[in-house]
Amino acid sequence: MSEGSPSPEVTPVEFVSSPAPSTNFPGDFQSRSFNINLANGVSDRGFSFPANVNSRVMASVSELNGNFVPFMGQAGIVVSNVVPQNGGAMVKFNNTWPHPLNVRVSFLWQE
Q: pTM score, two decimals?
């Protein structure tokens, strides 16, 4: 194989976009946060807020200290998937810390 050519294991990725990408976002975004105790490992959690299956929903997670203030701890906490539902969203997390942690999950959504 010549230098600079891709390895045979690399497969090109085809990106798919919606038929008519939206460049304007009508309506206002809403937000809500939840303080929860998150188990270690992979877990799915449901959250209730006024979204629906067609809403744009984004989630973030922050570790909380003993006073429930967000801080950058040593734990790796990942939001793996966010699925809008009527009345909220389902979220898949991965907490790599060997123990449960107090975290804040924050949502930003648009109906």
A: 0.76
